[in-house]
Amino acid sequence: MKRPAFANWLSDTNDITQTFLSAGQISGLINMAGGLPDPSTWPVSDLSDLAAAAVAQHPHEALAYAPIEGLPVLRDLIAQRFSVHGMRLTRENVLITTGGMQALDLIGKVLLEPGSLIAAQSPAYLGALDAWRPRQPIYRPMRLEANDFDPVTALTGVQFAYTVPNFSNPSGRLVSLAERQALVEAAHVTGTWLVEDDPYGTLYYDSAPLPRMLTLSAQRDEGLYDGPVIYMGTLSKELAPGLRIGWVVAAPNMITTLVTAKQGSDMSTSGLSQRIAHDSFASGLTDHVLPNILSLYRARRDALCAAMKAHLDDLFDWQVPSGGMFVWATARDASMNTDHLLREALFQGVCITPSSVFDPEGQNRRSIRINFTLNDPDKLAEGIRRLTVAARATIAKPQ
Ligand SMILES: Cc1ncc(COP(=O)(O)O)c(C=O)c1O
Q: Is Transferase a UniProt keyword of this protein (predicted)?
């Protein structure tokens, strides 16, 4: 019996994903490929107390279908948390989502037609490319650091610009204050939307956080926020990804449009998770766990970069990131193919992510993304030792 074919966009995926799926079977593998938090940072007993209290004390919020746009108490709390002097937010500016991933999906649903243009910070987050692939957009890469980068030209004619300004996934790059201001200015001039995806905004290891583009884009003292930024936050990196709690802060008409799309997606984000998220913020739990997360990840970043300096210095260039979860390294040898390096690395028992998956055209094969948050310093050092063997083998082998 011949069954109906799967949709066309599925043939447009990268075969590296298959390689990753099979990597799960390798015993003793050191996984430096993902973007996973260390489970030891999860406040398990506090969260189980909050979960029990949520069900016992707020059964109608925790166990019923929640409102599509989110529990009012959580929307109010997010509005208050992201308000700053001169920018007024209310719950009308806030949508609760099932993780940041759902926000990406909904943004694609409400803004993209086949062939729509997206100006995307390059290299770009794989999850965003995955979320928008079924809508068949065309990408205009933005290299914010290039001397000739002109934000107004970049944003002209696009449906939206997509950026991860705090320690980008995958590049770990921090977008400077001047670059943020220029992007915001260009969004105002061109009238387009500016998506600010911010899962790593609390993970600053060396300095105080820069202002969000959301804040920079507020027209001072003009009432409720109605600017061009679609800000996305998540609890995945600052508390626990399994809660699947994210939020969008944006102009009220964008929020109501996203609500329409969310209705046909999952109807509502788990009320239990929303209640736990609310109580985690309100009780100070999120603020309480942050210093421990920062010192753990800062030490791991330092351990990874020390091991890279000791072993990989003649093979790769990289910048030490001042936050986030990743180091982005580019091979000195332009002929290095990091898709091939991944296969050698798996053979040596270590997994990293090659740059091809972060390029909408799949062309960039010279860089790798290395995660430093999941493994302890000894494992990171051993992972880099294995990666070095793999890199030398890749260079030695004509492909
Ligand atoms: C840049 C970026 N956006 C969005 C997400 C989605 O996160 P979540 O769905 O867990 O909130 C991630 C996760 O790694 C990310 O790195």
A: yes
Q: What is the CA(311)–ligand 1 centre distance, in A?
A: 30
How many angstroms does the Cα of residue 356 sit away from the middle of ligand 1?
A: 19
For the chain, list the domains and their CATH numbers. 8-36+287-396 (3.90.1150.10), 58-283 (3.40.640.10)
pTM of the model: 0.96
**How far does residue 164's CA lie from ligand 1's centre (Å)?**
10
- Cβ(261)–Cβ(227) below 8 Å: no
* Residue 241 in contact with ligand 1 by CB distance below 6 A: yes
User: Which residue type occupies 231?
Assistant: Y
Q: Is residue 234 lining ligand 1, measured as CB closer than 6 Å? A: yes
pLDDT digits (tens, 9 = 90+) for 117-171: 999 999 999 999 999 999 999 999 999 999 999 999 999 999 999 999 999 999 9
**E strand or H helix at 117:** strand 117-121
Task: Quote the ligand 1 centre to 198 CA distance (angstroms).
Answer: 8
Question: pLDDT of 101-117, one tens digit each?
Answer: 999 999 999 999 999 99
- CB atoms inside a 10 Å sphere around CB 146: 9
101 lines ligand 1 (CB under 6 A): yes
72-82 helix and 271-282 helix, angle to the nearest 10 degrees: 40
Written as six digits, the tokens of 62 are 């925790």
Helix (H, G, I), strand (E, B) or coil at 185: helix
Residue carrying structure tokens 């082998």: 397
Q: For residue 242, give the amino acid letter.
A: G
Helices within 266-397 (DSSP H only): 271-282, 285-311, 338-348, 377-396
Which residues, 6 or more positions from 310, have their beta carbon under 8 angstroms from its beta carbon? 384
Residue nearest to atom 7 of ligand 1 (CA): 100
Report the distance separating Cα 390 and Cα 362, nearest Å: 22
